[in-house]
Structure formats: structure tokens, C-alpha cells
Predict the structure.
Amino acid sequence: MILSQKMPLIIFLLFCIINCLFWVPNHKKQSSWANVPPIPSMETSKLFTLGDGQFAYRIYTIMLQNIGSTGGRGVALKQYDYAKLKDWFFLADNLDNQSDAMPMLAAQYFGAVDDKEKLNEIYDYLAVVGARPTGEKWRWLAHAVFIARHVAKDNEKALELAYILADNKNPKLADWAKQMPAFILQDQGQADLSYNIMINILISNIETLHPNEINFMRDYICNTLLPELPETAPPHFCLGK
């Protein structure tokens, strides 16, 4: 009778002892970050969300956005495995290649890392997304060119991406995007190649270009490129200026 009355107290004390035995050697330990996990298969992704690919896309976008900022932890971008991140980008792209959520996350969040090798993974993804001749996906490729040229200071990669951008057949492609290789070439000291690009664009599209764009191109050719090309005969629209 007495034992049965004290049984709850005995059980409580037993749990306290077990808790203390566990707490003493482990109370200073913290969970470690396992970095970016490997991607699941497409079948597993859809099975996880009961066949709803759109739901899976959104879950993965939120997961990648917060994966390094959970449990009171803040992980620097340079600590992420960008090769695995790229795998997640393309997995999401297979689930929904129309949404701009994942390209925006790649370009404007993960694209802020100051590591050229890691940025190459971002470029690979944005080059595929931005080369599509639909919607305004080309803007993500333009963002990749900006990162390469102005953030990473990698003009070679910027020029490579700029050529891909300029070749995009999207009818909504902005005129300045077609001119992007010319700007980078001039910055590299290759004003002759830049001049050829700008002249060809101006002559080929004179009837469709906005007057403001024509004025800009004329000014760029006459006042920026030609002073670097003293042996080049100025076009007629530069004479008399």
C-alpha cells in the first residue's frame, strides 16, 4: 500500500535521474549543419506532395530560402554547397519552368556570394532559364551578366553570358540586352568589335528602334567608341557634330 502510494514519486525521481545522466555529458553540444541535402528523384518529389508538382515547387523554394537560417543559426552563403544548390534549382525547374520564384532566389539571394567558383553554378542555371524565348526569362540571364561583370569582376564570363543573351529570339528582348556584348567588349579594350556590333544593330533595326534608343546608340558610337578608333572612318551621322 505504501509502495503503491510512493510509486509516482519514484517514477518521477527515476525520470529526473535519467534526464540528468543524459544532460550532463550533452548540454554543451549543438546540432551541426549538414549543408545542402542531395535532391530526391522526381517521382519522390511528387509522391511527397501527393502528386502535386506545384506544391513541391513551393516547398522546395521555401526550404532553400531558409535552409541555413534555422534553429537560431545563420550560415554564410560561402558555406553552402552550390553544386547541390544547382541540382535543386534544376529539380524545381522540372516541376515548374514558368515560375520566377526559383530564378529570383538563385540570382538575387544565392548570387550574392563572393566566390567565383560558386557563382559558376548560378550562371549555369540562369543561362538555361534566361535563354528561353518565352515571357521575360531573359532578364534572369541579364542579371547573371550583371553579377559576373560588376560583382565578380569576371569580364570573360560576363561576355560569354552576354552573347547568349544577345542571341535570345524572344521578341520582348530589350534593345540594351542585345547591345550587352558591345559594352563589355569596349570595357575590355576591344572598341573595334564593340563598334561593329553597335553599327550592325543600328543599321539592321533602324526602323523599329525607339528614337531615344537611336540617339543613345549614335552618341555611344560617336563619342565613346570612335575616339578609341582613330583610323576608323566615322559614319555619316557622326559628321558635323
Summary: The chain has a mean pLDDT of 87. The chain has two domains: 51-61+79-170, 174-241. The first helix runs from residue 2 to 26. Residues 180 and 192 are 15 Å apart (CA to CA).
